[in-house]
Amino acid sequence: MRLNSHQQYLQDLVEHHRRWEPYGGSSPEDLMIHFGLTPVRFRQRILEAARSSELNEYWATKSDLRIRILRAANWIGHNTGTDQMIRLKGA
């Protein structure tokens, strides 16, 4: 399946997250340089990708990563007393 530009963007974000996850994530500077995103916006986009059906073929081989992203988002919402950090625009 050929990805459209939005799907490719989401997959690039997730791949960046996957590469840096074992090291505690990438730096805010790297996120700004590579994607033009703050860490909060990066987490929102990663969550968007994990919740999206647009990347079903990608997630079919990386379901463990998808589950970790969704669990982390749920944990952040519960432990800060708000889901503001993970809320997506229009959600």
Shape: globular
The biggest sheet amounts to: none
CA-to-CA gap between the ends? 28 Å
- Secondary structure tally, helices: 5
**Domains (count):** 1
Which segments are poorly predicted (pLDDT under 50) over 5 or more consecutive residues? Answer: 77-91
Our Rg estimate from Cα atoms comes to 13 Å
β-strand amount: under 5%
Helix content: 55-70%
Number of strand elements = 0
Organism: Gordonia pseudamarae
Protein name: DUF3263 domain-containing protein
Short recap of the structure:
With 91 residues, the chain is mainly alpha-helical. Helix content is 66%, strand content 0%. It comes from Gordonia pseudamarae.
List the keywords.
91 residues; mainly alpha
Can you give a write-up of this model?
- This is DUF3263 domain-containing protein.
- It comes from Gordonia pseudamarae.
- It is a single chain.
- This protein is mostly helical.
- It has one domain.
- The chain is built from five helices and no strands.
- It has helices at residues 5-20, 28-35, 39-51, 56-60, 63-80.
- The longest helix is centred in the C-terminal third of the chain and has 18 residues, at 63-80.
- It starts with a helix and ends in an 11-residue tail after the last helix.
